[in-house]
């Protein structure tokens, strides 16, 4: 190969290697530059990432703090809302149904219908990403934030209109009503239902309230009347209760703590169209009712939004709304469980039927140590209780009103009212200022507590007389009236003497005299006036006189009656009734107030209408009477007053018609002493009188001075003869009189023997030897001169005298002629006709029997032994006898034989 070629190859090679070298250098440089650029990029990117991270961290941090703040703030707000709700709706107003119970509150509360669904923080809503906020969980699981109840204002605030789903709306209405009832005192919420579609079915769960009239229904056509009535209440309350002084009952309650009117909640259900009048009245009530405690719950009729009206839209789930909650969803509570509803209604009805808790008697009394400070010179005044407005109601007896008429059906508290009144008077006036005379014609012993008894020896110091169990002894009423009549005359005489006209003046003129005002209380007085007989006639005359003239002499009558007949008994005597200007009516009392005055019809239990103006409506005062019936409470007062009495003060006279008096207790018997009086006195029994006096017949030396006891009742006949025998014996020394007893009835043997044993040297005769006695007595009776000592012959069953005509003639001789010669027969005949036989048959004269005591013998049978044409008015009754003595009596008197003593 040529050199040049070689050369050329070498040159090419050199050129190539040079070029390669250059290229390698360039590559190397380029690669370095690339590395530098990559490193730079890497740095920039790292820096960028770092920055991004920092920013994200900062953002996250910020977000977290925002969320935290939000959650805290929301929690605090819902906590505050829940707390406020608890305060606004405590107890039964807000408690869930499962733990619900009634809790009467001092003031009206807001009422829960469900709960407000508040927004919650996003952290609590993981399941629904993408939504910044969510409504809290519809499940009943406890929400994160405290539950905020949805509350509506009803009582004392406004009205509630429920719309939307009918069934859920019914639940809202039921819940609201139950909470309203459960948060107020029983009876203070009255519900009136208008349910034309379901005829009350919409409020069926509340049916238990109906008997207590806490719930009433109006008829389907009664809406207008109901609205009119409610408007009437609003007008009346505005005029007479708020009377310009308060703007609402709520304000009145806040100022005085009193609530004189109930809340009236009218529930209007159904979707009927309202007519113009109804619409106008409804609008009136919506505007003005709440201030007067008249509230509407409307679930049906359309109502325009207005202040004070809460609109609740019932819907399931979270779709319910209430107007005061804005857009916040409401989850409504279910309706109250039926068991809770019925149990509560029953409990409320029972509480209403049982009436309000009694007030204590102490509330009427002055403080201990302050008793007996008042003067009765011008009248007697004492509180009887509080009015519904909380003011004291004073009851006065004076010149006007002088007398009182009290009426109330049995069990309404008439006796209690009398006790309370007496207690209030007795604590204020001393016995020198006030005296009570008490008579109870009711069966029972209600006034007995005022007199000493076996268990309690104390008595009410003012009480001078207590008559109990006198329902068959109308004569005792008469005796009281006679006694008061005599006292009236005594006072009138004293007034004349001092030239004064009334008690106040008499007391001023005669400061040392004791002139207490007398209050005579006659319970069930109509018994006294029942019957067309001499007792009624005389009682009415006496009553009339006392009522008319007693006023100025300080004698006050208080007549009480439980039934209308009591008042009717007086009704034919307008002049008498007119004097009884103080009228007291207990619940449902009839005729005691003026005819148009119906206040007693709507009186609650333990209340009374006090009316000092003859029952005129304007003078009504309602009073809540305290409980005075409780023996404990009463005896505390009685003992307190009794201890103030001076030692040895006499107890009152207690006349108990059920108790047989004892001869040994008779003041007249105890006063007897042997004195050989020419007019020995045979006591016979106790008279029915204010003073405990013994009936007597005087066996002086005069024709007819014999005594006949007539009737078949052995025990009573023996009691009368024993009384006569013992009292006669007590008036003679051992030899001062001769006593002979003859007994022809086996049943009377023991009693006759007992008397025989009590009388010293008393002769004893029976069928075997009575002939001697009669022979002897007949001879004495026809002797020329009277005996030097009396001879009392006591014959038991004289009609069974043996010895035929001879003995009969002898006895007749003794009866006719003996008394003039100091021989007196005290005989028991077992019938009025049998006595007539002894005297000689139908045509015979009866004047040998100057005195008689009749037992179970009818008045008509006594006619022959009674002067004039008539017969005494007498219907036999156990352990009572009729006594008549020609020498002293105008009419016969009822007596009570002395019992075994
Ligand atoms: N104001 C009252 N507060 C509490 N209890 C009362 C009150 N008034 C009466 N009661 C109670 O009611 C019952 C009946 O009362 P009360 O005997 O006075 O009636 P009444 O009208 O006299 O009845 P009756 O004529 O049948 O005797 C009693 O048990 C009594 O204790």
UniProtKB/TrEMBL annotation:
Residues annotated as domain FtsK: 390-595
InterPro entries listed in its UniProt record: FtsK/SpoIIIE/SftA (IPR050206), FtsK_dom (IPR002543), P-loop_NTPase (IPR027417)
Residues given in the record as ATP binding sites: 408-415
Keyword Transcription belongs to the record: no
Signal peptide interval: none
Gene Ontology terms for molecular function: ATP binding; DNA binding
Coiled-coil positions: 13-40
Keyword Nucleotide-binding found: yes
Keyword vocabulary terms for this entry: ATP-binding, Coiled coil, Nucleotide-binding
Region (Disordered): 122-145, 363-384
Pfam families, A to Z: FtsK_SpoIIIE
Name of the protein this chain belongs to: FtsK/SpoIIIE family protein
Species for this entry: Actinoplanes regularis
Taxonomic lineage: Bacteria, Bacillati, Actinomycetota, Actinomycetes, Micromonosporales
């Amino acid at each position: 190969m040529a050199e040049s070629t070689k050369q050329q190859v070498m040159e090419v090679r050199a050129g190539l290697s040079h070029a390669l070298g250059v290229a390698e250098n360039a590559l190397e440089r380029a690669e370095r530059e690339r590395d530098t650029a990559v490193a730079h990029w890497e740095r920039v990117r790292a820096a960028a990432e770092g920055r991004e991270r920092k920013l994200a961290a900062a953002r996250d941090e910020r977000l977290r703090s925002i969320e935290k703040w939000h959650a805290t703030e929301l929690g605090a707000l819902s906590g505050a809302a829940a707390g406020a709700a608890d305060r606004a709706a405590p107890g039964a107003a807000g408690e869930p149904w499962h733990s619900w119970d009634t809790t009467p509150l001092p003031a009206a509360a807001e009422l829960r219908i469900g709960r407000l669904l508040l927004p919650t923080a996003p952290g609590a809503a993981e399941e629904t990403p993408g939504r910044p906020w969510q409504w809290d969980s519809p499940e009943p699981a406890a929400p994160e934030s405290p539950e905020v109840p949805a509350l509506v204002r009803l009582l004392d605030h406004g009205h509630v209109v429920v719309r939307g789903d009918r069934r859920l709306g019914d639940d809202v209405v039921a819940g609201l009503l139950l909470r309203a009832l459960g948060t107020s005192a029983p009876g203070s919420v009255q519900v009136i239902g208008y349910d034309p579609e379901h005829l009350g079915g919409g409020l069926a769960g509340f049916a238990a309230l109906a008997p207590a009239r806490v719930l009433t229904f109006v008829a389907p056509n009664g809406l207008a009347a109901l609205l009119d009535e409610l408007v009437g209440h609003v007008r009346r309350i505005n005029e007479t209760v708020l009377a310009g002084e308060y703007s609402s009952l709520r304000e009145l309650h806040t100022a005085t703590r009193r609530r004189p009117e109930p809340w009236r909640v009218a529930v209007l259900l159904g979707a009927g169209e309202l007519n113009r009048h109804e619409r106008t009245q409804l609008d009136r009530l919506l505007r003005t009712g709440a201030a007067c405690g008249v509230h509407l719950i409307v679930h049906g009729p359309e109502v325009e939004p207005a202040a004070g009206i809460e609109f609740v839209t019932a819907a399931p789930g979270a779709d319910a709304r209430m107007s005061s909650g804005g857009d916040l969803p409401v989850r409504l509570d279910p309706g109250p469980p039926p068991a809770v509803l019925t149990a509560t209604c029953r409990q409320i009805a029972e509480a209403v039927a049982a009436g309000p808790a009694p007030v204590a008697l102490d509330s009427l009394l002055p403080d201990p140590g302050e008793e007996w400070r008042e003067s009765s010179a011008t009248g007697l005044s004492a509180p009887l209780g509080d009015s519904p407005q909380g003011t004291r109601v004073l009851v006065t007896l004076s010149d006007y009103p002088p007398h009182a008429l009290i009426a109330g059906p049995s069990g309404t508290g008439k006796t209690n009212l009398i006790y309370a009144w007496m207690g209030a008077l007795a604590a204020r006036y001393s016995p020198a200022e006030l005296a009570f005379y008490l008579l109870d014609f009711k069966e029972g012993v209600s006034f007995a507590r005022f007199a000493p008894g076996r268990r309690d020896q104390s008595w009410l110091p003012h009480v001078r007389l207590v008559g109990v169990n006198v329902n068959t002894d109308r004569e005792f009423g008469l005796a009281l009236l006679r006694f008061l009549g005599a006292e009236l005359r005594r006072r009138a005489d004293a007034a004349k003497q001092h030239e004064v006209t009334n008690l106040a003046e008499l007391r001023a003129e005669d400061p040392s005299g004791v002139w207490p005002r007398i209050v005579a209380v006659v319970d069930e007085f109509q018994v006294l006036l029942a019957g067309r007989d001499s007792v009624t006639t005389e009682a009415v005359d006496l009553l009339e006189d006392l009522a008319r003239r007693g006023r100025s002499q300080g004698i006050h009558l208080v007549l009480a009656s439980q039934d209308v007949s009591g008042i009717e008994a007086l009704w034919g005597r307008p002049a008498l009734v007119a004097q009884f200007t103080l009228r007291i009516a207990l619940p449902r009392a009839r005729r005691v107030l003026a005819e148009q005055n119906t206040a007693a019809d709507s009186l609650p239990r333990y209340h009374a209408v006090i009316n000092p103006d003859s029952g005129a409506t304007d003078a009504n005062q309602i009073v809540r009477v305290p409980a005075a019936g409780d023996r404990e409470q009463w005896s505390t007062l009685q003992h307190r007053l009794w201890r103030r009495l001076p030692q040895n003060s006499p107890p009152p006279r207690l006349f108990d018609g059920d108790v047989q008096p004892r001869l040994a207790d008779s003041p007249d018997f105890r006063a007897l002493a042997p004195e050989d009086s020419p007019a020995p006195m045979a006591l016979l029994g106790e008279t029915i009188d204010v003073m405990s006096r013994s009936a007597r017949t005087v066996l002086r030396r005069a024709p007819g001075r014999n005594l006949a006891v007539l009737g078949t009742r052995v025990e009573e006949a023996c009691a009368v003869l024993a009384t006569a025998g013992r009292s006669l014996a007590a008036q003679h020394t051992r030899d001062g009189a001769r006593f002979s007893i003859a007994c022809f009835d086996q049943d009377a043997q023991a009693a006759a023997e007992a008397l025989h044993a009590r009388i010293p040297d008393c002769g004893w005769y029976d069928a075997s030897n009575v002939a001697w006695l009669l022979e002897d007595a007949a001879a004495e009776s026809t002797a020329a001169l009277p005996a030097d000592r009396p001879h009392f012959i006591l014959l038991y069953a004289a009609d069974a005298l043996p010895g035929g005509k001879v003995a009969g003639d002898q006895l007749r001789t003794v009866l006719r002629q003996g008394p003039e010669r100091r021989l007196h027969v005290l005989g028991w005949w077992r019938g009025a006709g049998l006595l007539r036989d002894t005297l000689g048959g139908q045509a015979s004269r009866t004047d040998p029997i100057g005195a008689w005591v009749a037992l179970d013998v009818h008045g008509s049978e006594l006619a022959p032994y009674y002067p004039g044409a008539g017969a005494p008015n007498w219907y036999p009754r156990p352990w009572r006898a009729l006594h008549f003595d020609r020498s002293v009596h105008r009419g016969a008197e009822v007596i009570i034989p002395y019992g075994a003593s």
